[in-house]
Write a sequence for this structure.
């Protein structure tokens, strides 16, 4: 992996970590800088208003990044006409936040281009409340195709050989059942 690829991945990971819950309030940040991601949890006061539980995470796949978004929603929100577009808008807000924070962290810019449509899954937890999980893949500019690493099983090591021998087809000496 080249140093430029590693720099891009580390910069995006740091940008994602700057979106923690509480970063939108200067009272809860270390540097006093307000960071608004565009999530519902940033609205209102956390002490007096009912909290909306939502957040995001990122994963890296080859030359792309996958942004995951999860939130608690009520069924009346799910059946609203623009629910899918609202979830897509939130994923886009997270993408914009990552690009802005990446520029602040590294001093360089990065372009994230969407691959296909966002995948949205709504699951029910009760008759009133549900939760939504959505993800979208984005191609990261500057990242080349990363090599696929295959897990290597080193059977020459004594510890590995003993561990693998536990799962063989041999029957233990105290097994008195008839062979089939």
């Amino acid at each position: 992996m080249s140093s430029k690829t590693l720099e891009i991945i580390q910069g995006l990971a740091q940008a994602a970590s700057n979106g923690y819950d509480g970063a939108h309030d200067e009272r809860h940040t270390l540097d006093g800088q307000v960071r608004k991601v565009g999530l519902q949890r940033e609205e209102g006061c956390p002490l007096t208003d009912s909290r909306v539980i939502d957040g995001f995470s990122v994963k890296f796949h080859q030359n792309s990044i996958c942004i995951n978004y999860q939130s608690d929603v009520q069924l009346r929100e799910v059946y609203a006409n623009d629910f899918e577009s609202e979830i897509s808008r939130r994923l886009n807000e997270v993408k914009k936040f990552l690009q802005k924070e990446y520029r602040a962290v590294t001093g360089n810019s990065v372009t994230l281009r969407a691959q296909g449509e966002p995948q949205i899954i709504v699951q029910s937890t009760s008759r009133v409340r549900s939760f939504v999980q959505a993800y979208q893949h984005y191609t990261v500019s500057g990242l080349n195709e990363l090599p696929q690493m295959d897990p290597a099983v080193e059977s020459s090591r004594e510890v590995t050989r003993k561990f693998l021998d536990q799962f063989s087809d041999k029957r233990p000496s105290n097994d008195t059942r008839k062979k089939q």
In short: Strands lie at 54-61, 64-74, 112-124, 129-140. The mean pLDDT is 79. The CA atoms of residues 53 and 71 lie 6 Å apart. The longest strand covers residues 112-124.
